[in-house]
């Protein structure tokens, strides 16, 4: 539910920004249908508005969207076995859906959460894009409304539960998340948009490291066995009376 609300706000923002910046109404609508990648769509439109060519805009979007490749491997079991289900699952994959799916351990629950979340997000995103594009300049500066932080906040709420448990490999996941976050934050002022996110993926190999359990203390010398007491000898028989 929260993911759908966030997507509706950000999708409307994307449609409004694209149209108010001078693009025809059909451009954001087609992008949402066939690209369905919010960050990449914003970056692509931003490059065009900054004066970059179509090739530069498409390359920027592809580079940013490459972050979904390891996410796809993480939830590939939820795609299904048929080619069309894999195609639809890969197309509708988002950061938020991955975080939502990974909260569940049962494969059946994962599959249900994957498809329910992805289809709902896809429908909401596209409907909101159309409404935002029709609104045009009405929404104005969407960043001033705080809509740009809605999705990151929800993503953080989805990721945190998977980092606070005590299961196997939790420390390795926390290390990877910490290193990746530091890399992304530190390089954001220095690198083009989207590149810090890709750089943060360099921390993924840290999840393969497992904590070495502390060595067990060697067993001490065994105490000698205490000999069991021998049974008392039987009493001699009483002498017979003549």
Write up what this structure looks like.
The chain has helices spanning 2-20, 26-34, 38-49, 54-65, 68-74, 83-91, 95-101, 107-135, 150-163, 170-187, 195-200. The protein is an all-alpha fold and 242 residues long.
Q: Mean pLDDT, as a whole number?
A: 74
Oligomer: single chain
Helix content: 55-70%
Strand content of the residues, in percent?
A: under 5%
Number of helices: 11
Number of domains: 2
Enumerate the spans where pLDDT stays under 50 for 5 or more consecutive residues.
none
Please summarize the sheet with the most strands. Answer: none
Order of helices and strands: HHHHHHHHHHH
Distance between the termini: 108 Å
- For the secondary structure, the number of strands is 0
Instruction: Round the Cα radius of gyration to an integer and report it.
Output: 31 Å
Overall form: globular
Structural class by helix and strand composition: mainly alpha
InterPro entries: Brnchd-chn_aa_trnsp_permease
Region (Disordered): 211-242
Biased composition (Pro residues): 212-242
Subcellular location: Cell membrane
């Amino acid at each position: 539910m929260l993911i759908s609300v966030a997507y509706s706000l950000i999708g409307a923002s994307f449609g409004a920004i694209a149209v108010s910046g001078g693009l025809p109404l059909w451009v954001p609508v087609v992008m949402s249908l066939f690209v369905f990648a919010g960050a990449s769509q914003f970056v692509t439109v931003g490059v065009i508005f900054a004066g970059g060519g179509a090739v530069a805009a498409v390359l920027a979007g592809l580079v940013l969207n490459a972050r979904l490749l390891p996410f796809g491997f993480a939830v590939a079991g939820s795609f299904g076995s048929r080619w069309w289900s894999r195609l639809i699952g890969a197309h509708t994959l988002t950061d938020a859906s991955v975080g939502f799916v990974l909260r569940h351990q049962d494969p059946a629950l994962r599959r249900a959460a994957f498809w329910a979340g992805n289809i709902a997000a896809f429908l909401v995103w596209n409907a909101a894009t159309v409404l935002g594009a029709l609104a045009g300049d009405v929404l104005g500066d969407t960043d001033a409304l705080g809509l740009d932080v809605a999705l990151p906040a929800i993503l953080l709420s989805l990721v945190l539960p998977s980092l606070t448990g005590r299961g196997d490999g939790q420390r390795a996941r926390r290390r990877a998340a910490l290193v990746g976050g530091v890399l992304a934050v530190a390089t954001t002022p220095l690198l083009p948009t989207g590149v810090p996110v890709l750089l943060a993926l360099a921390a993924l190999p840290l999840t393969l490291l497992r904590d070495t359990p502390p060595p067990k203390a060697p067993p001490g010398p065994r105490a000698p066995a205490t000999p069991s007491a021998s049974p008392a000898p039987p009493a001699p028989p009483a002498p017979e009376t003549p």
